[in-house]
Amino acid sequence: MFTLTKGSIFVLVSSYLQITSGDPSWPCDHPIYCQPYKGILHTVQTLKIFEDGKTFVDMNLKNTVDETLRRFEELGENPSKDRVVRFLEENFHDAESDLIPGNISDWQSNPAILDKIQDESFKELVNTLHNRWKHLTRQTVYSSDSTSSIIPLEYSFIVPGGRFREIYYWDSYWTIKGLLLSELYETVEGMLNNFKHLISRFGHIPNGNRIYYVKRSQPPFFSLMVDQFIESVSMRDPSVVREMTAEFVMHMAKEFQFWENRLRNVTVDGKTYELAAYDVGVQTPRPESYAEDLELGVLLPEEKRFEWYNHMISGAESGWDYSSRWYSGKVNADHPLLSVSTADIIPVDLNSILYRNAKIIEKFYLALENKEEASRFSSRAEKLQNGIRGVLWNERDYMWYDYNTKTGLQNRNFYPSNLAPIYFNSTHDNINYTRVLDSIIAANVTRFPGGVPTSLYNSTKHPQQWDFPNVWPPLVEMFVTSLEKLNLTKASELAKDAAGKYLNNVLKSVGDNWTMYEKYNCETPGKAGSGGEYNVQEGFGWSNGVAMSLLDRYPDLVSRARIYAPSSLVIVLSIYYILLSIF
Question: Do 188 and 491 touch, CB atoms closer than 8 A?
Fold first, then answer.
């Protein structure tokens, strides 16, 4: 692996001096957690004191920012690793000390979904996942984020799990699906109120509630979360729906404005459309992966380096960090991440999500008799829909594909995100859905025993975690739902089969290891996914939500085997997670 030398550090510091004269766009303004190329972040991360760079930026201060900076300056230039370790021990708390277990005040012991599921093993799986929410609930303990990287939130929230100690934006869409099935309505409302607060403060929802995430978001699912929540409220208490609609729609519109700033003109066949890309505009290393970005970035010419940093942080914003979706040109076999070009790509899913957001906001404004605002969002939705058809639709393949603005080419490989226009209802008129289904079948992605893989891009030289052989739960739900929306018998059969394979994969992992993973292996049921910049994580918020959602859709699914003693497993898991929370 490439390591930083004195020469490379000199190049990086020289680059820093040039950047500062041009008013750089750092990940955030905090002098400890975000300042690149010198100071505490640079020193700690380049010395690789922690195996996972995220550990440091999640540690909060024992003293004020100024006092911590003063004590660091006393170390002098180029302090040894041992001295820096002692400095950290004396001046920082452990990671996650700015969070405590949260309270679920609306806990329900026996949600209705348990009576709906017919298979005993799947019933016990859902019961296990339902009880696991208690162990994934957190709340912040700091009222100010100057001595911590955490962004304080008023209400408790569900975290993914593992190294992902804070709330994550797009994860929460699938987590909330599970919480609603667990009938934890107040918990969901609290999470949505937290997101409202973040929109009010930043104009958007950051990647997560850490200050080093504030300049990047994630796929914008807030309007969809609100829509599904208000739909659940309307069935329980219709009298409060109008008030809630008015309360949320302003924040939904404000967030949409943030994403409108990501729109760009794309001209295809002589016609110009407005479509969005993940393009954060931060041209420095990610704080949580600082050393890794530095080591690769220094291999590039300076004029390409800062652009690449933006591609990397934009890839993190996409949620697909990282995938062959973002490769451009010939892949660098030795350092494949150097081929990432996220900001050049017009993604099918992002623009379909924005279309759906515009239609939901239009619906909310119509419910409030605000025809002017409703018309504005209707017009924006129509423009997005036209762009999706004009730029991302491939008539010959009868499929939607991401579009590279630099090469002018579509990425004609399979990804579940290709089906996003179906999932988010952004398809154009007069589509022959039988031909769409034929295209899906031709990709032959449903043949794997562990579920639908994220792609068929299988390279041992440059694998990424959002590629083969990994099965990501949110993409399974999108794939299954999209097939069902085709309203074709064969598509419904494939959807149910895909859901069954994924759920049996999950069931086996829980039975074998008492573990819910963030991602799974499509070839070996029960096996965790692999690849990426960190070890596979356990928990896991969206995995739990997707499993519950699919079993709610297919309550008659039959498990392949009874692989554990259900009642004892729930008891053992509860004890296990209580011990984890203590120690």
Answer: no
**Non-local CB neighbours of 367 within 8 Å, separated by 6+ positions:** 242, 245
Cα–Cα distance for residue pair 270/132, rounded to 1 Å: 54
Q: Give CA–CA dist 456/413, Å, rounded.
A: 8
Q: Residue 81 contacts by C-beta under 8 Å, 6 or more apart in sequence?
A: 47, 49
Report whether 74 contacts 84 (CB < 8 A).
no
* pTM, to two decimals: 0.92
Angle (deg, nearest 10), helices 433-443 and 489-513:
40
Closest CA to 425 of 361, 489, 359, 488: 359
| Single-letter residue type at 432 | N
Q: Are 385 and 428 in contact (CB under 8 A)?
A: yes
What are the residue numbers of the active site? 321, 518
**Alpha helix stretches (DSSP H) within 36-140:** 39-46, 54-57, 65-73, 81-91, 113-116, 120-132
* 175/285 Cα distance (integer angstroms): 29
Q: Are 501 and 449 in contact (CB under 8 A)?
A: yes
**Burial letters 283-313, b for 16+ CB under 10 A, else e:** bbbbbbbbbbbbbbbbeeeeeebbebbbbbb
Total residue count of the chain as it appears in this document? 583
For helices 185-202 and 241-260, give the axis angle rounded to 10 degrees: 40
Cβ atoms < 10 Å from Cβ of 500:
19
**How far is the CA of 117 from the CAs of 79, 121, 125, 451, 536, in angstroms?**
60, 9, 10, 21, 29
Q: CA dist 325 to 319, 381, 385, 391, 394, Å? A: 12, 25, 21, 16, 17
Q: How far is CA 25 from CA 258, 284, 318, in A?
A: 17, 8, 19
Question: Is residue 210 within 8 Å of residue 166, measured between CB atoms?
Answer: yes
Tell me the C-alpha to C-alpha distance, in Å, between residue 376 and each of 385, 386, 394. 14, 16, 29
pLDDT in 10s for each residue of the chain, 583 residues: 334 443 344 334 333 333 332 345 789 999 999 999 999 999 999 999 999 999 999 999 999 999 999 999 999 999 999 999 999 999 999 998 899 999 999 999 999 999 999 999 999 999 999 999 999 999 998 666 689 999 999 999 999 988 889 999 999 999 999 999 999 999 999 999 999 999 999 999 999 999 999 999 999 999 999 999 999 999 999 999 999 999 999 999 999 999 999 999 999 999 999 999 999 999 999 999 999 999 999 999 998 999 999 999 999 999 999 999 999 988 988 999 999 999 999 999 999 999 999 999 999 999 999 999 999 999 999 999 999 999 999 999 999 999 999 999 999 999 999 999 999 999 999 999 999 999 999 999 999 999 999 999 987 777 799 999 999 999 999 999 999 999 999 999 999 999 999 999 999 999 888 889 999 999 999 999 987 766 766 778 999 999 999 999 999 999 985 545 444 445 555 554 455 444 4
Judged by DSSP in three states, 555 sits in coil
